[in-house]
Amino acid sequence: ELYNFRLIKPDTKVYGLVGKPVGHSKSPLLYNAAFKSVGLDAIYMPFLVDDVEKFFNTYSSPDFASGCSCTLPHKEVALKCMDEVDPIAKKIGAINNIVRRPDGKLVAFNTDYVGAITAIEDGLRVLDGAVSVDGSPLAGKMFVVLGAGGAGKSLAYGAAQKGARVVVANRTLDRAKELADKVGGKALTLNELENFHPEERMVLANTTSVGMKPNIDQTPVPKHVLVHYCLVFDAVYTPKDTRLLRDAKQTGAAIVYGTEMMIRQAFEQYTNFTSLPAPEDMFRQLMENHA
Ligand code: ATR
């Protein structure tokens, strides 16, 4: 009952998820329920795509697809097929959200980093006790990103854009340096992080895959290092309660779960698709019910 194809008419707006695989995705569940709740004549479907360039060339007509989400392994190549790309998504080199404008042009965004950054900002606001402050609570903060891969880049650019002072710590120093140079930050190895605490109440964001392996309870940094941080975010979301976050809780830091990044990137995509606020409670409920 997720898809009722008899309801599709010539004017129905078609959205979809472009990727390989796509079958596991919760996106159709979320967006179709949201469309229905506000009576939008729209449908969101999975598109299993091998060659993403061919896909966008074939379906170049503005009549096809009002927008789509883009997932692995296409987040980088799809960027080249767009008419316009959000400046930060361009710097990151990856997109996950594509919207067709009324003039037919395809415009792309990266809502992954927005999801993580807004979750961290809200975490800091709670810590600061500020209900609403002008500007970002990340402005001027020291923001340590662990990892320099795709997710590391997203967090580093996103935080830098909010005025944070970025430090990239990575197992391989060269990759840390390359990214740190681009965001005007400092580079360290993961080991050097042990003796790095120029100030207290820093923010830590893990984007390495350490902690993801089932049954191996690993953490990218030893627990005693965490006392210098006021907030710790982990992009790893399976398992949700990683050793890093459990340690952080014990040292008294605020924590932000990777699942929060996942759900918030969906809020952002929905708003880009429809110009409507996302039904946040409904999305959270659906995610919980279909975990
Ligand atoms: P993603 O796109 O998810 O960020 P990626 O580009 O493969 O994935 O990057 C993985 C990141 O996790 C890298 O920063 C990697 O460090 P290296 O640059 O040194 O390879 C980091 N990483 C992966 N496994 C790790 C481990 N066992 N210990 C420390 N860092 C690790």
What is the compact description of this entry?
This is Shikimate dehydrogenase. The chain is an alpha/beta fold.
Protein architecture, described:
With 291 residues, this protein is α/β, with parallel strands linked by helices. The protein folds into two domains: 5-109 and 262-289, 3-Layer(aba) Sandwich (Rossmann fold), CATH 3.40.50.10860; 113-256, NAD(P)-binding Rossmann-like Domain (Rossmann fold). The protein is built from nine helices and twelve strands. The protein has helices at 27-37, 52-58, 87-92, 111-128, 150-161, 173-183, 243-251, 258-274, 280-289, and strands at 13-19, 42-48, 67-70, 84-85, 97-100, 106-109, 142-146, 165-170, 186-189, 202-206, 229-234, 254-256. Helix 6 links the parallel strand 8 and strand 9 (186-189). Helix 1 (27-37) crosses helix 9, helix 4 crosses helix 5 and helix 4 crosses helix 8 (258-274). Bound molecules: 2'-monophosphoadenosine-5'-diphosphate.
Blueprint of the fold:
Blueprint: E1 13-19, H1 27-37, E2 42-48, H2 52-58, E3 67-70, E4 84-85, H3 87-92, E5 97-100, E6 106-109, H4 111-128, E7 142-146, H5 150-161, E8 165-170, H6 173-183, E9 186-189, E10 202-206, E11 229-234, H7 243-251, E12 254-256, H8 258-274, H9 280-289
Parallel strand pairs: 1-2, 1-3, 4-6, 7-8, 7-10, 8-9, 10-11, 11-12
Antiparallel strand pairs: 3-5, 5-6
Helix pairs in contact: 1-9, 4-5, 4-8, 5-6
Bound molecules: 2'-monophosphoadenosine-5'-diphosphate.
Domain Shikimate dehydrogenase substrate binding N-terminal: 17-98
Domain Quinate/shikimate 5-dehydrogenase/glutamyl-tRNA reductase: 138-209
Organism: Flemingia macrophylla
